Amino acid sequence: MPHNGAVSADLADTGTDSDAPAAPRPRRGLTSIEALALLLVFGLTARPGLTELFAAPAAQAWSARFVAVCVQAFPFLVLGVALSAAISAFVPADFFHKAVPKRTALAVPVAGVAGAILPACECASVPVAGALVRRGVAPAAAFTFMLASPAINPIVVVSTFVAFPGNPEMVGARVAASLLAAVTIGWLWAKLGKAEWLRLPRHRHHDDGKWAAFWAAIRHDFLHAGGYLVIGAAIAASLNTLVPETWLAPIADHPVLGVLALAVLAVLVSICSESDAFVAASLTQFSPTAKLAFMVVGPFIDVKLAAMQAGTFGRRFAARFAPAAFVAAVAAAVLMGAVWL
Amino acid sequence: MRLDAQAVILLLVGGGMLRLAWTGAYLDYVKPYAFWLIVPAGVLLVAVAAITGVQAWRGERAGDDGHGHGEPKVAWLLLAPVVGMLLVAPGALGSYEAERTGTVVGAEESRSSYPELPDDVDPVPLTLLDYAARAIFDEGQTLEGHRIQLRGFILYEGDEPQLARMVVSCCAADARPVKIGFEGDVPAGLEPDQWVEVVGEYTPRQGRDEINGELVPYIEVESITPIPAPENEYQ
């Protein structure tokens, strides 16, 4: 495409223009008018170029998946940050001191069961857990809540039930394995976790009242977690498009490799916990335990979640938490699979 | 990042989602029920953008108060899905994906009985998933003696055209195809991704998907008619 040189040059120019003022000098950011104008210019000049760039079927498929993950996840993220902002702004700090048991060992299982009350997927539970920690809830209990909630809430239970008709023990095994692993992680954190691994983005104290704090928290949390969500969505879309499914087939029959393969697949594809049961059910070549591992690991840890956890709690935390959550989830799934399925 | 730039990004993300809902393009990416999630979320984001815009206009500063926790630069990445939603606007996944993904019929394996098809409708419209499940797990017992109507798009497995439709559980990222083979005369020159309406009868012939080895049922073709793509291309 020879005539496109000018367009891509334009594209590159606008790209660097918009980055340059934002990055190095903190005081001289973009004004909204400049940003809007740049976007307008970008939109008008780049659109033909973009259409051609994304005309290849693989690029179309990638961008459709990327947009799909974002569009599916944003509403739950908005719900999560709105809840977390409401907790930060309106729930008095001493409420949690009264509601959550004093002893962490007891608070962890209580938090796990309480996870059932947040009917949303994992994109919502990460910011809510962040707000709980800021509100003085023991991190161990908040993490157990964060892990258990997307796996055992009513919507997920019902969708698992529908996805595995005539197979209610799959629902029981999923809830039991998820709770077990979530509580284990909570206790593990209480024993070994170090506060210095956590780096929570601090909220500014607002003197202009609770509503101002509420809106500021939504704005900040959405921009922050949303940015990380975009990274995760891009990785998930790339893996879905690039990793051919044929790789899975030879592994499916092996009892151990099958479980590990679906556990890793759950991390890579990053499906919302409300509907991962349908995908698990469609992976018919695999054993029930492997499908259970897929459904227990998915809400605990996946590439999109790891990116969001790194954004909400800090990278040092995520680097330790992600492998621990993965191992606990796989172990609990194998245990429940052996006992129940 | 300054407050006014934050307002613009929030407005673009919220506005982009509302636009997808308004134009119906959201059906290329998510399930129909997601409309009721996208719209409130979009409205809330636009409201946050408006409030942020007012604060910026009044000259308030963003929350960087010297702790080093300034507004996150990572938020600029939110422009990527905005570009995706508004400028690239990729269409629904079609034959390219379906040719690279195994067929999905296994999903309804455990269903024990299939309701009889109505006798007073001819041909009987069925979804591809329903036809495939009846053909494979029920040996076509409920399909015998009926003319069946299927709607899907064309893909090629090697040189052989097949009928397919994408099944989506959550969002398009997990889309997987159901595939059905043609038995009998197929009109030449069917393009991949062309939507067609197929009328035909059940045939016991079955094949195997090259990718995942699952069964692919066939249909005895009576007619294949090109149709425009439906509003919701997924199932």
Automatic annotation (TrEMBL), chain A:
<dbReference type="GO" id="GO:0005886">
    <property type="term" value="C:plasma membrane"/>
</dbReference>
<feature type="transmembrane region" description="Helical">
    <location>
        <begin position="222"/>
        <end position="243"/>
    </location>
</feature>
<protein>
    <recommendedName>
        <fullName>Permease</fullName>
    </recommendedName>
</protein>
<comment type="similarity">
    <text>Belongs to the UPF0718 family.</text>
</comment>
<feature type="transmembrane region" description="Helical">
    <location>
        <begin position="321"/>
        <end position="340"/>
    </location>
</feature>
<keyword id="KW-0812">Transmembrane</keyword>
<feature type="transmembrane region" description="Helical">
    <location>
        <begin position="66"/>
        <end position="93"/>
    </location>
</feature>
<dbReference type="Pfam" id="PF03773">
    <property type="entry name" value="ArsP_1"/>
</dbReference>
<feature type="region of interest" description="Disordered">
    <location>
        <begin position="1"/>
        <end position="26"/>
    </location>
</feature>
<dbReference type="InterPro" id="IPR052923">
    <property type="entry name" value="UPF0718"/>
</dbReference>
<feature type="transmembrane region" description="Helical">
    <location>
        <begin position="171"/>
        <end position="190"/>
    </location>
</feature>
<feature type="transmembrane region" description="Helical">
    <location>
        <begin position="255"/>
        <end position="271"/>
    </location>
</feature>
<feature type="transmembrane region" description="Helical">
    <location>
        <begin position="105"/>
        <end position="128"/>
    </location>
</feature>
<keyword id="KW-1133">Transmembrane helix</keyword>
<keyword id="KW-0472">Membrane</keyword>
<dbReference type="InterPro" id="IPR005524">
    <property type="entry name" value="DUF318"/>
</dbReference>
<keyword id="KW-1003">Cell membrane</keyword>
<feature type="transmembrane region" description="Helical">
    <location>
        <begin position="140"/>
        <end position="164"/>
    </location>
</feature>
UniProtKB/TrEMBL annotation, chain B:
<feature type="transmembrane region" description="Helical">
    <location>
        <begin position="7"/>
        <end position="27"/>
    </location>
</feature>
<feature type="transmembrane region" description="Helical">
    <location>
        <begin position="33"/>
        <end position="54"/>
    </location>
</feature>
<feature type="transmembrane region" description="Helical">
    <location>
        <begin position="74"/>
        <end position="93"/>
    </location>
</feature>
<protein>
    <submittedName>
        <fullName>TIGR03943 family protein</fullName>
    </submittedName>
</protein>
<keyword id="KW-0812">Transmembrane</keyword>
<dbReference type="InterPro" id="IPR015402">
    <property type="entry name" value="DUF1980"/>
</dbReference>
<keyword id="KW-0472">Membrane</keyword>
<feature type="domain" description="DUF1980">
    <location>
        <begin position="140"/>
        <end position="234"/>
    </location>
</feature>
<dbReference type="Pfam" id="PF21537">
    <property type="entry name" value="DUF1980_C"/>
</dbReference>
<keyword id="KW-1133">Transmembrane helix</keyword>
<dbReference type="InterPro" id="IPR048447">
    <property type="entry name" value="DUF1980_C"/>
</dbReference>
<dbReference type="InterPro" id="IPR052955">
    <property type="entry name" value="UPF0703_membrane_permease"/>
</dbReference>
